[in-house]
């Protein structure tokens, strides 16, 4: 629901194309979206294990921002923190750092 509200506020349709009617909708759009090829906008998001599905409004997530472990933590906090999460933490933090710096 978050991405639906943000997309409506910025005049972005489910294909990532701008169909708004105000320059204010494009103001600060880069906070939530990256411009992709073909003048479309794609959401800035990270996909962490347990969230593997299609992106907001049916968009496919960027494969460079889609992280998936070998298996799940089975709702076990210690396994997710010390084993499964420990394997992914460096690559996830690298993407977060690059996104924050851009």
TrEMBL record:
Entry annotated with the keyword Nucleotide-binding: yes
Keywords: Cytoplasm, GTP-binding, Microtubule, Nucleotide-binding
Gene3D superfamilies recorded: Tubulin/FtsZ, GTPase domain
Keyword GTP-binding: yes
InterPro entries: Beta_tubulin (IPR002453), Tubulin (IPR000217), Tubulin/FtsZ_GTPase_sf (IPR036525)
Subcellular location: Cytoplasm
Primary localization class, coarse: cytoplasm
GO cellular component: cytoplasm; microtubule
GO MF term list: GTP binding; GTPase activity; structural constituent of cytoskeleton
One biological process term in Gene Ontology: microtubule-based process
Superkingdom of origin: Eukaryota
Family: Belongs to the tubulin family.
Protein's UniProt name: TBB4B protein
GN (gene name): Tubb4b_0
